[in-house]
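Q: Given only this backbone (220 positions), what sequence would you predict?
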């Protein structure tokens, strides 16, 4: 992968942004400082900003040329409820909170792309820069969608990426379709006659009798 020279020229600024975010981690739907930082940077680069989608979400929009095509570039911004034990200068300043999943890096990368695109605008169409809260178990993407993300910022496609420490420097891994695992919860209701005691619920009350090896449960 060949790095774009113009981005290399300001990579120290993007590095400092990442370290600042890393030092001030915020949990899902609490990312107010992070959202403020993102919005301030985007506006400083002349990018219009929409705030409040998904609570603490931020979206910047860049337009160039005449094409009606539009894409979204997405990064997550929340941290995890974990204690950081690193000793470097930009370690977490908030006990029990840490950017352990790399969202500080994702945010910094998207801000780097935002700065580059705002300066050189070598594209034809619209780019929505989507900074999503609450990726860690909060369904922040769905909250942004429910708040009208794609009505206000319609996209033909949305692209995101995740850092991967095990890959060689300068490489990308791509896959069509779903990647990695997801989790869902569901509740079931079972209707029927109860058993007695609870340890023998497979035997209905009318037919149950305590075997000689079963000690009565100490339950009131």
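A: Predicted residues:
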């Amino acid at each position: 992968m060949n790095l774009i020279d113009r981005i290399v020229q300001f990579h120290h600024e993007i590095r400092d942004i990442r370290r600042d975010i890393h030092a001030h981690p915020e949990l899902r739907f609490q990312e107010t400082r992070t959202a403020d930082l993102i919005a301030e940077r985007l506006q400083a680069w002349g990018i219009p900003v929409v705030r409040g989608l998904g609570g603490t979400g931020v979206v910047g929009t860049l337009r160039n040329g005449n094409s009606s095509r539009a894409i979204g570039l997405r990064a997550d911004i929340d941290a995890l409820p974990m204690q950081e034990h690193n000793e470097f200068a930009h370690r977490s300043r908030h006990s029990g909170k840490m950017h352990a999943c790399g969202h500080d890096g994702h945010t910094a990368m998207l801000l780097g792309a935002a700065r580059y695109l705002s300066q050189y605008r070598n594209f034809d169409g619209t780019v929505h820069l989507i900074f999503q809260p609450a990726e860690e178990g909060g369904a922040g993407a769905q909250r942004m969608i429910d708040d009208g993300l794609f009505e206000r910022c319609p996209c033909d496609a949305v692209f995101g990426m995740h850092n991967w420490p095990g890959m060689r420097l300068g490489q990308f891994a791509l896959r069509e379709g779903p990647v990695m695992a997801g989790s869902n919860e569901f509740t079931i209701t079972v209707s029927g006659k109860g058993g007695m005691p609870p340890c023998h619920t497979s035997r209905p009350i009318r037919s149950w009798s305590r075997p000689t090896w079963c000690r009565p449960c100490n339950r009131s």
